[in-house]
Amino acid sequence: MFEDTIEKESSSSSEESLQLVSFELSGEEFGVDIMQVSEIIPISKITRIPQAPECVKGLINLRGKIVVVIDLNRRLGFSPRESDSLSKIIIVKVKDTTIGMLVNSVNGILKLPLSFIESTPDMIKSKINSEYLTGVGKAGNRLLILLNLARVLGEEEVDELNQLSSSSSSFSSSSSSPSLSSSSSPSSSYSSSSPSSSFKESPEENT
Asked: InterPro entries, from UniProt (predicted)?
């Protein structure tokens, strides 16, 4: 049974194998180093943010902490998918900022020998920004696209998300139906009046 909170194993075997969290996006299987993941939670109520970039899904209240959720499908340039009972939010920490990343489903945890990891094929690089990729892993008849979640968002983008979550203190667990209005954060960098948001949307995949 996959646990919501992940216990990271000792790094004593890190030279021989890599422990990965496996998840799905747009019909493809991805893997991330478990050391980048704080926990995995079921999808909960997400409060949308007016005028936010398309890849920003909204805000959640994680045990009293405001966390911005990124739609990883959109961020990687895939077509958006409707959330369902299999959808999960992977909680990661990037440059001391806690961020949620919405994925279609989580398959579990697996150990992959380093010898089973190869460089990313050009075919995959043509669809996904190569800066996000660390290689591909072969697990039996499965091929995992390996991501570095810390690179999926740039430093300026992380700063914007941090500012957004910090300015949304009105979103609290005491509110049964939290909401955000564009006037509640007049200095938000996501305002339509902002001429230079650092978010750059990836083009959607061709189908």
From this structure: CheW, CheW-like_dom_sf, CheW-lke_dom
